């Protein structure tokens, strides 16, 4: 069993990464990777929703008929997003002011839905929860990496405003790599998202090739 | 449970049950979070008011001592074109007014400003509440990024003269940013409109309740 859990972790974080391998969730990937901090925030919020949704779908998997599974899944994802949205607004308001913008966008992300259909609908509760969590963390990793590249080249900083998201200690993460007025603007604008995401996919494949792994082609089909 | 050919009512009942169940959960969550969210929203309003009206000049709560003034330019929801004016008072005397202004003509849509104005028409302060300007270019209007917005404090419609309430590129006296003229132009224009709104409605804004 532990080998199986290891594979779930590896799949989520790297081998079957939602963004870099399956090319799912492109809408938030493009919209929220202007800076590494934004990418990280979007990723973490998505990971929470994915873990909770996978857990619930696995719990109810034996009671949902095939014909109505998609509306039930969408209902579960949308409900979880609303729980997170309301709960954070009420009790984690400082964080909500930064992340609040991203949270409703999770509903429009097809990665959670893809994992419900491809994994949680068939597997027991614990593996499903882990799959949601690590797919979400893999998503976080990809978004943070894309955001970091766009931010460094686009405006010469790294993890700008991390303290707003993570608290005052994160000031140490906020780096200015290039002088203040330097930056290749196109990288922060929407075309930069496409450019960097594309190059990241290439980079992942080159790393896999170099390490002699067989390249996994898109593992799930868009839903 | 994907055995084929179940009667339709089975699917309908399952979907209906999930909708009802999550509907109840959502209603409960809403009920529990409603009050805290309202409190947080009030705190946020106080914080943004605190940036344009110094605490030292009032002893009331401007959020509750607010009045609505009709404003055809406000473009409110559903034809309710009015601007809510928050009034700071000390010992019953009005010491400052704060209200939101939508500056049109931003690069990414309207820019929401909060203006604080003293009874004599001088700006107590201006802050950008929300905007969708280009990061790294237009977002320098944000007080978190640069102090550009603080230069308006103390100015009024006569100082500088109305025709100078423009960015330098348009013959006015306010600096634009390198590479971004549209955003500061919208902000300067928005502040001017806001001051004109004050000039036209000052007596009504000062009215005692």
TrEMBL record, chain A:
<comment type="similarity">
    <text>Belongs to the NqrDE/RnfAE family.</text>
</comment>
<feature type="transmembrane region" description="Helical">
    <location>
        <begin position="98"/>
        <end position="116"/>
    </location>
</feature>
<keyword id="KW-1003">Cell membrane</keyword>
<feature type="transmembrane region" description="Helical">
    <location>
        <begin position="182"/>
        <end position="203"/>
    </location>
</feature>
<keyword id="KW-1133">Transmembrane helix</keyword>
<comment type="subunit">
    <text>The complex is composed of six subunits: RnfA, RnfB, RnfC, RnfD, RnfE and RnfG.</text>
</comment>
<keyword id="KW-0249">Electron transport</keyword>
<feature type="transmembrane region" description="Helical">
    <location>
        <begin position="12"/>
        <end position="33"/>
    </location>
</feature>
<dbReference type="Pfam" id="PF02508">
    <property type="entry name" value="Rnf-Nqr"/>
</dbReference>
<dbReference type="GO" id="GO:0022900">
    <property type="term" value="P:electron transport chain"/>
</dbReference>
<feature type="transmembrane region" description="Helical">
    <location>
        <begin position="72"/>
        <end position="92"/>
    </location>
</feature>
<keyword id="KW-0813">Transport</keyword>
<protein>
    <recommendedName>
        <fullName>Ion-translocating oxidoreductase complex subunit E</fullName>
        <ecNumber>7.-.-.-</ecNumber>
    </recommendedName>
</protein>
<dbReference type="GO" id="GO:0012505">
    <property type="term" value="C:endomembrane system"/>
</dbReference>
<keyword id="KW-1278">Translocase</keyword>
<dbReference type="GO" id="GO:0005886">
    <property type="term" value="C:plasma membrane"/>
</dbReference>
<feature type="transmembrane region" description="Helical">
    <location>
        <begin position="128"/>
        <end position="149"/>
    </location>
</feature>
<dbReference type="InterPro" id="IPR003667">
    <property type="entry name" value="NqrDE/RnfAE"/>
</dbReference>
<keyword id="KW-0472">Membrane</keyword>
<comment type="function">
    <text>Part of a membrane-bound complex that couples electron transfer with translocation of ions across the membrane.</text>
</comment>
<keyword id="KW-0812">Transmembrane</keyword>
<dbReference type="InterPro" id="IPR010968">
    <property type="entry name" value="RnfE"/>
</dbReference>
Automatic annotation (TrEMBL), chain B:
<feature type="modified residue" description="FMN phosphoryl threonine">
    <location>
        <position position="181"/>
    </location>
</feature>
<dbReference type="GO" id="GO:0010181">
    <property type="term" value="F:FMN binding"/>
</dbReference>
<keyword id="KW-0288">FMN</keyword>
<keyword id="KW-0997">Cell inner membrane</keyword>
<dbReference type="InterPro" id="IPR010209">
    <property type="entry name" value="Ion_transpt_RnfG/RsxG"/>
</dbReference>
<dbReference type="InterPro" id="IPR007329">
    <property type="entry name" value="FMN-bd"/>
</dbReference>
<keyword id="KW-0472">Membrane</keyword>
<keyword id="KW-1278">Translocase</keyword>
<keyword id="KW-1133">Transmembrane helix</keyword>
<dbReference type="Pfam" id="PF04205">
    <property type="entry name" value="FMN_bind"/>
</dbReference>
<comment type="function">
    <text>Part of a membrane-bound complex that couples electron transfer with translocation of ions across the membrane.</text>
</comment>
<comment type="subunit">
    <text>The complex is composed of six subunits: RnfA, RnfB, RnfC, RnfD, RnfE and RnfG.</text>
</comment>
<keyword id="KW-0285">Flavoprotein</keyword>
<dbReference type="GO" id="GO:0009055">
    <property type="term" value="F:electron transfer activity"/>
</dbReference>
<keyword id="KW-0249">Electron transport</keyword>
<comment type="similarity">
    <text>Belongs to the RnfG family.</text>
</comment>
<keyword id="KW-0597">Phosphoprotein</keyword>
<dbReference type="GO" id="GO:0022900">
    <property type="term" value="P:electron transport chain"/>
</dbReference>
<protein>
    <recommendedName>
        <fullName>Ion-translocating oxidoreductase complex subunit G</fullName>
        <ecNumber>7.-.-.-</ecNumber>
    </recommendedName>
</protein>
<feature type="domain" description="FMN-binding">
    <location>
        <begin position="106"/>
        <end position="198"/>
    </location>
</feature>
<keyword id="KW-1003">Cell membrane</keyword>
<dbReference type="GO" id="GO:0005886">
    <property type="term" value="C:plasma membrane"/>
</dbReference>
